[in-house]
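Sequence in, structure out. Go.
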Amino acid sequence: MVKPHLKIELYNTDSGFSSYGASHLNIEGKISVIEGYFSRDVDDPTFMNLKTEYNLTAGDKFYFLPGVSVPRIKLKDLASSHKIKTVRDINDATVIFTGKKTAISVSDDYWMHSVTKTGLLTFLAYAKENNNITDYEYEKLVPVISSSIEEVICTDYQTARLLRDTNIPYHLDEEVQGSDKFTILKSDYYELYNNLKTKELYSEDALYPHLNGPDATIIDEGMYESISEMFRSSDDDNCILAMEIMANCDYNQSIVYLGILFYNYGHKIYQMRSKNHVNFKSLLNYMGNTTGSPSMDKDEIVSCILNKNLLTVDHMNVLSKEFADNVTHGGNSRYFRVKTICFSKEVDEALGLELTMQVKNDYVHTPVQELEEEEEDNKSEEPIQEDEYTNTEFDPFEF
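Output:
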């Protein structure tokens, strides 16, 4: 989650350090506060706990955060049928939507080093003891660092290099961490972000099922074959029509065949100017694709369906049929596995029989309750042992 982080930058102003070592070390520092988070600390981007289902309600007022790619033109039917409005003031909104690109739109990514608070204070204490920092600089830095509620202090590459420099007798080692991506909230969005902390947010995916209306086309096997013929045509107008059907279909109900269409014809879509149409870009965003990379592989299709909680047995049957040959010849896959192997017809005829070998064990469903009971039984069988860590005092800096 976005929160204030203290950033400390240290400099050595004595040019003789490279030649004479710590006897020519004069440390000065700079303090700043940055709003953001380390990627290692946060699983979800800037806005968290999003609702993924939205029940269309007459009279709702929509507010779209930066980075939402829902085409506003598609809201016209909702405006007439449900009196839906879009508002510019977030305080007037009844529903707030955020998108996949919202975090990118309101923040910037940097590579940042970090140092533990206790390690940095120890380093500065030794620097003062060895006359490597003036009283003024020490009193400027230490009270601020000491008052920080965060154990990890942000810093830059030059400071991390100085803190680790082995020419300094009291240099740090494990206390300084390597660079990691740090996301900083743009100053223009501080007020917006703080305002959102108390509001419910909806993913833009929650709105897609309502955009094309209840009569939107569902791409089933028959419709998929018709669209495929359009893509195989040498006439670009047929390809444009195919893309229009895809852009205006029921995304959720058509997701498996949409994925297969992007798998088989992504290269053709890439060549079409109509991929930049606002409606088709909306579809691309829904599927997690871009105009520069509209194609999908088999694992990306499954990931897309899984992430939207739309996976069904029917979907997997369709994908198994589509990728049967690809799985056996297409190398490693995250989701597809070969369970049984056999030999060619030539080998069968030579042996006078067909040999098959199962290479994946049958799946056996284990209810969650049974798993928990098994874990409890295992725990009860383990002897309780006291070791050097038992009954240790709580360390407020231990996380």
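Check: Residues 226 and 242 are 9 Å apart (CA to CA). Residues 382-399 have pLDDT under 50 and may be disordered.
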